[in-house]
From TrEMBL:
GO terms for biological process: regulation of DNA-templated transcription. PROSITE patterns: OMPR_PHOB. InterPro entries: GlnR_N, OmpR/PhoB-type_DNA-bd, Sig_transdc_resp-reg_C-effctor, WalR-like, WH-like_DNA-bd_sf. Keywords: Activator, DNA-binding, Phosphoprotein, Transcription, Transcription regulation, Two-component regulatory system. This is Unannotated protein. Residues 120-216 form the OmpR/PhoB-type domain. One of its GO terms (cellular component) is cytosol. GO terms for molecular function: phosphorelay response regulator activity; transcription cis-regulatory region binding. CDD domains: trans_reg_C. SMART domains: Trans_reg_C (SM00862).
């Protein structure tokens, strides 16, 4: 069962009557940007574009630009199909008279694709989940408060678990060839990362006289930290 949010200017009428025949939880709110701030939790959004295509397109762009994090399906009439294009940013479109079978299939497909995309943009390593799309990282469900460079350093190390990198290599890969600071910068960022990782600080290991690596379970005991 999915959590469905319906955005419509006609909040007193059902946008897709067939949704009521499905087991999904459906909530409908006015299609206004101000209402999106406190919108109910949702896995998918239906946007009503049956009456005002221009307003619906504008709202669709706002949703995409602000990173809604859920698939967006636009509901249109037969006559409105010609106005729909890729710049709406929608995942799919559906006609207002769609039946329950079609709606359920579109919901499953849209959520499935979104989940697949999300997984493809995540790095899972030794209990840490790094989301490259949102530039965020979590450990045991706790979001880490990382600076941009701390995130980039963590991501790079996690992408190469078990491989040792010298400070010069990390400077080149994370900071770039045009960075003029010294290798001390790497040590400072490693120390800050470990502090923010808390109980997981040992995931970033020090290899004496060489550099750093992201630990795997197999090499935890061989490191001097």
């Amino acid at each position: 069962m999915a959590q469905i949010l319906v955005l419509s200017a006609t909040a007193d009428k059902q946008v897709l009557p067939a949704l009521g025949l499905l087991s999904h939880r459906v909530r409908q709110i006015p299609a206004e940007p101000a209402n999106l701030v406190n919108a109910p939790g949702h896995d998918l959004i239906f946007l009503d574009a049956r009456q005002d295509l221009a307003a619906a397109k504008s709202l669709a762009k706002i949703l995409v630009a602000t990173g809604i994090g859920a698939p967006l399906i636009v509901v249109v009439t037969e006559g409105g199909l010609a106005a729909i294009s890729s710049d709406w940013g929608a995942s799919d479109i559906v006609l207002e008279g769609a039946g329950p079978g079609e709606l359920d299939a579109r919901i499953r497909m849209a959520i499935g694709k979104a989940n697949q995309f999300e997984r493809s943009n995540q790095i899972h390593a030794s209990g840490i989940v790094i989301d490259e799309a949102s530039y965020s990282a979590k450990v045991s469900g706790r979001t880490l408060d990382l600076t941009f460079k701390e995130f980039e350093l963590l991501r790079f190390l996690a992408q190469h678990t078990g491989r040792v990198f010298t400070r010069d290599q990390l400077l080149s890969e994370v900071w770039g060839y045009d960075y003029f600071g010294g290798t001390r910068t790497v040590d400072v960022h490693i120390r800050r990362l470990r502090a923010k990782l808390g109980d997981y600080e040992s995931l970033i290991g020090t290899v004496r006289n060489v550099g750093y690596r992201f630990n795997t379970d197999e090499n935890q005991e061989s490191l001097a930290t």
